[in-house]
Structures are given as structure tokens and as C-alpha cells.
Design a protein that fits this description.
By secondary structure, this protein is an alpha+beta fold. Helix content is 14%, strand content 31%. It is built from 5 helices and 18 strands. The protein is globular and about 60 Å long. The two termini are 21 Å apart.
Length: 320
């Protein structure tokens, strides 16, 4: 499995546009409360070392710890270059033309820059491989620990039409997952709403919520048990998602009582697991077996169906 060298990246600038709700806070309080992955002292050190800038439309200036914020201002955190974790880079191109790409993503590779990942992401790697006026744009996403098919647009037309297919549920996505337990029925449907829940590290995190929850959004998954290992109490389940909520399959299977085997985050009930003390499990933690197996969509320019299927990698079966 190909992995990148642990070299320094070029750093990154994180921007926040302040809303009326943010007004009246100090710079230190804003970052400490908004981005809980770092301690108050860490944010204080960053501010005092002039890594945080503010702009009120008249120019950028270093922020101060006790500076009071106003609505409409923009804050910038200039993160210095850092060494990113090594990730697998065996990205397989399964279909390509001037309008789109279909690739097979390995488990362990993040899709978008976030947290400790910038260059070591599917998006940045493909942007390097396909430079131009319109670099590849993901139409949907996969979790870091999920392997398999991803669709990306390479033209404005493709981005518009493929995104519309997503909204109209004309883009067919089928996954394979290895779940703990043995569902009583071979076929079942899950429609548990998915919404944001409080999290001590991230602030909020997605999970299963009640029908009455304000943050809850409709989610629909249809499941078909392909095989059962009664001795190990594991099931190979094919899942078709008709909506694209964050971590939908992990949350839905867990909410039905059959979480993905070795999923450190989502436990039975679809609620994120918290440890007695930090660190807590995070969405990017790997170890579970989930694979985007099948994808069908209409070509945005030729209006003909395209179907792509890719088998799971050998490590997928480690949970079965």
C-alpha cells in the first residue's frame, strides 16, 4: 500500500466570518468555544504569536487575546506548516472524461482537508493530478475509513447536473458493510432522522435523533443481508442510501441495533460513544469495514446511464 512521506506541508489559513451571535466575545473566547480540539492555553499561545489576524474591511491586523469582536469582521488563523499523518494513496481511476471522474478511494484516505489533513487528502491529490481551470469537485463524500467509489465533476456542467441528480435521488449508491449482530429480517428499511448532537471535543457531531428534534433531517436507507456468520455474530449487509446524510450508514445500522463491527464511534442506538476521559472517538477513526460498491448515474452531457462497480479490498474482510 503506497503511503506518502512525512514531510511538512505548506500550512493553511482557516477563515471565519463573524455573525451577530459572535459579536461581543473576545478573540480568545471565540476560538476556545468554537474549536474545542485545542485548549484555551493553546489558542492563547497562537494569538500571542500572531497566528490570528482580524479584518474589518480596512486591512488585516494581528488580533489580541481580549479584543472584542464585531459582526461582519473576518478572522484568520494562519496555521504553520505541519507533518500530516501518512495515508494510503493507491487511488484507482475507474472512469474519466472531460466532465467527470469515478475513482476508488482506499480506506484511511480523507476526502477533504480537515483537522490534521491537507495535502494527504483525495481532493488535493486529484487536484495535483488534474490541474486546470476547473479542478475535480466531489459530488458526494465518503468517510475516511470507508473505501470504494467516488464521483467527481471536472466541468461546471457536470457539477450542476450531477448535483441535481443527487438532490433528485437519481444517483444510485450501494454499499457493503460488515455489521455486528444478525438482523432478524433479510430486508429492512431504516428512516431514523440524523442531526447534530453536542460533543465535548468537536462542539457538535452527527448522530441519530428523535422525530421531534429540531436538528433532525430525514434519512432513508434500505438494507439487505447478504450473508450471516452466526458463530462470530457478524452480517454482511448491502445498503442503498436514498439520502446522503453525514455518516448515514454507520448511524443507521447502529440505530437499528447492528453497528458496523469495530466502529469505535457509533454504538447501538446510533449515538456517538464518549470515553470517561478524553480523547474521545472521532468520525475519522478507522477500523470498521464499509465499502462503496456500486454507483449508477446519468452522464451530464450525453444523458446516458453509467454504472461502475468495484469489489471490496482484501482488508475489508478482516471483520468477517
Amino acid at each position: 500500500m503506497c503511503k506518502v512521506k512525512a514531510e511538512l506541508n505548506s500550512g493553511w489559513v482557516y477563515r471565519d466570518r463573524l455573525t451577530p451571535k459572535d459579536a461581543g466575545q473576545t478573540v480568545l473566547n471565540f476560538y476556545t468555544c468554537r474549536y474545542r480540539h485545542s485548549s484555551e492555553q493553546t489558542w492563547r499561545d497562537r494569538i500571542e504569536s500572531e497566528q490570528i489576524y482580524w479584518d474589518d474591511g480596512l486591512g488585516k491586523r494581528p488580533a489580541t487575546v481580549n479584543q472584542i469582536l464585531e459582526a461582519g469582521q473576518e478572522l484568520e488563523y494562519h496555521r504553520p506548516p505541519w507533518r500530516e499523518p501518512a495515508v494510503p494513496l493507491n487511488i484507482e481511476i475507474l472512469y474519466q472524461d472531460a466532465d467527470l471522474l469515478v475513482v476508488s478511494k482506499p480506506s484511511g484516505l480523507p476526502v477533504m482537508p480537515a483537522g490534521g489533513f491537507l495535502e494527504h487528502t483525495l481532493l488535493r491529490q486529484l487536484q495535483r493530478q488534474y490541474p486546470g481551470d476547473f479542478p475535480p469537485v466531489p459530488i458526494h463524500r465518503l468517510g475516511r475509513g470507508t473505501s470504494g467509489l467516488m464521483l467527481l465533476a471536472r466541468s461546471p456542467l457536470a457539477k450542476s447536473k450531477l448535483t441535481q441528480q443527487m438532490r433528485d435521488r437519481h444517483l444510485r449508491k450501494i454499499y457493503w458493510g460488515i455489521a455486528a449482530g444478525s438482523p432478524p429480517k433479510n430486508q429492512f428499511t431504516i428512516t431514523t432522522p440524523i442531526g447534530k448532537l453536542p460533543h465535548p471535543t468537536l462542539g457538535t457531531i452527527y448522530g441519530a435523533v428523535s422525530e421531534s428534534a429540531i436538528t433532525g433531517k430525514f434519512a432513508h436507507s434500505t438494507c439487505h443481508v447478504q450473508h450471516r456468520d452466526l458463530q462470530r455474530q457478524r452480517s454482511l449487509i448491502e445498503v442503498r442510501i436514498l439520502t446522503g446524510r453525514p455518516h448515514q450508514i454507520r448511524i443507521h445500522l447502529a440505530s437499528a441495533g447492528f453497528p458496523l463491527a469495530n466502529d469505535s464511534l457509533y454504538q447501538t442506538g446510533g449515538i456517538p460513544r464518549l470515553n470517561p476521559q478524553p480523547p474521545h472517538p472521532l468520525p475519522g477513526d478507522c477500523g470498521y469495514s464499509l465499502h462503496a460498491h456500486h454507483l449508477t448515474f446519468y452522464h451530464p452531457r450525453r444523458d446516458r446511464p453509467i454504472t461502475v462497480t468495484v469489489p471490496p479490498p482484501p482488508e475489508f474482510w478482516s471483520q468477517f
